[in-house]
Amino acid sequence: MRARLELYFRFAEHRTTWRTELLAGLTTFITMAYIIFVNPAILSETGMPLAAVTVATCLCASAGSILMGALANYPLALAPGMGLNAYFTYTVVKGMGIPWQTALGAVFLSGVIFLLLTFTGIRQQLLAAIPHQLHAAVAGGIGLFIAFIGLRNSGIVVPSAATTVTLGDLHAPTTALALFGIVLIAVLQALRIRSAMLLGVLGTTVVGALLHQVPWQPSSLSPLAIRATALHLDIRGALGLHALEIIFVFLFVDLFDNIGTLVAVTDRAGLIAADHTIPRLDRIFFADATATVFGSLAGTSTVTSYIESSAGVAVGGRTGVTAITTGLLFFAALFVAPLAGAIPAFATSPALVLVGALMVASAARIEWDEPRIAVPAFLTLVTIPLTYSIATGLSFGLISFAALELLTGRGDRRHWMLYTLAVLFLIRFAYITHT
After folding, report:
1. C-beta of residue 266 within 8 angstroms of C-beta of residue 278
2. Is the N or the C terminus of the chain less surrounded, counting Cβ atoms within 10 Å?
3. Parent domain of 192
């Protein structure tokens, strides 16, 4: 059985081992564990029961990640997406006054449309239309993005009215612990220890606990709590005029956030083929679309690929076993959710910072002496972290690439999807400006 599994997941091809894959899955889970508490906290503001959303979050992250690993054989973990959950709560439900049941119906319909786009090959064509020259820029931009998230979550970087961001209070206990974590992981990496990320996170958590900086209040969570949200979606209501607009946003933002994450993680893992295509792409898209449909039925917002998957990739994860391990841990979190929540932000933030450092290395592959590539790549690289959006950074890069191709006489009818995509991005910007 073990030999069959190793053959199915292509261990020999990816030069990996069970120990490496399991460690990578655990590392990814630890960097993603915050979603177990953050997602319910956001969605509960709509009136959805907190316990029900917590169970739904764990189940959807578990099912989505396991499906991705088993079907597509990629180290991509899934969970309800940050940003889209905020849009669900603050714009759709609280801002527009739409019931959360109707909003779940819109999520369901967007997932069904995703499935249709996958079966017809349109999503695959959209990804193929993104120039391979921008792949490294997307990976580098997301590296800067998650490093910035890590620096902000740790308190090393804080908001500033005068300069937008500035240096935080390095004397604060949690910030000092985050700095300790960065140094610890960096030293372990320098010593070529494969489990540097995991050991760094756990080590920082232990030191924080000894210094009484890890708050933890024991509580219980029953899986049966999901009955308060499961199958409560209102699909008929989601077909109304305003809801159609909501479906479009769920669809559009998730589509390009997913593409950006997919390109970045597979590029970092070296899983992109020599012809710049991503093998088994249809299976990847089927898994995330199915997870979104399942999420809406269970009672949570759009499920998407997580850039924190790159943490697992950074410690050697290369196959679906990494994602399956993460999924099983999310299922286990149903019964030990308080324990998972004991890992604080100051412990996981250093891992995000140093994973970002690893991903930025891909920018070295960009042809900086060729303006047609350098300009779009640079715009992609800087706008992803500065706008706090993978989709927006990808938009800037793709529009500028298409414009330079046309204005320098290099336009080709064979690249019609590229230009169509650029127009869609322009429409997206017009929509954002309008709203």
Report:
1. yes
2. N
3. 2-135+178-349
Whole-number Å distance between alpha carbons of 156 and 346: 10
CB 41 within 8 A of CB 301: no
- The count of C-alpha atoms lying within 13 angstroms of the C-alpha of 377, restricted to the half-sphere facing its C-beta, is 23
Nearest-angstrom CA–CA distance, 93 and 193: 47
Compute the C-alpha angle 306/310/313, nearest 5°.
130
Shared domain check, 103 and 21: yes
Q: How far does Cα 297 stand from its chain's mean position?
A: 21
Q: Are residues 274 and 417 in the same domain?
A: no
95 strand-pairing partners: none
* Helical pair 18-32 and 320-340, crossing angle rounded to 10 deg: 40
Residue 38 lies in a domain: yes
Q: What tokens does 105 get?
A: 């119906």
State the Cα torsion 88-92-93-95 to the nearest 10°: 130
State how many domains the chain has: 2
What is the 3-state secondary structure of 150-177?
HHHHHCCEEEECCCEEEECCCCCHHHHH
Does 400 map to a domain?
yes
**pLDDT single digits (tens) 220-259:** 677 888 999 999 998 888 887 566 667 766 776 677 667 7
* Helix, strand, coil share (%) of the chain residues, nearest 5: 75, 5, 25
Amino acid symbol at 71: L
Q: Rounded to whole angstroms, how far apart are CA atoms 152 and 144?
A: 12
Residue in the structure block whose two tokens are 């991509």: 76
Residue 429: CB partners within 8 Å, gap ≥ 6?
A: 395
Is 220 among the domain residues?
yes
CB 319, CB 10: distance < 8 Å: yes
Alpha helices, DSSP H, located in 156-236: 173-190, 196-210
Measure the CA–CA gap between 401 and 7, rounded to whole angstroms.
40
Assess if residue 145 is contained within a domain: no
Higher-confidence residue: 121 or 170? Answer: 170
Residue 72's nearest CA partner among 117, 2, 129, 8 is 8
The amino acid present at 35, given as its one-letter code, is I
Q: How far apart are CA 435 and CA 429, in angstroms?
A: 10
Whole-prediction pTM: 0.73
345: left (phi over 0), alpha (psi -120 to 50) or beta: alpha
Which pLDDT band, with edges at 50, 70 and 90, does 434 fall under? very low
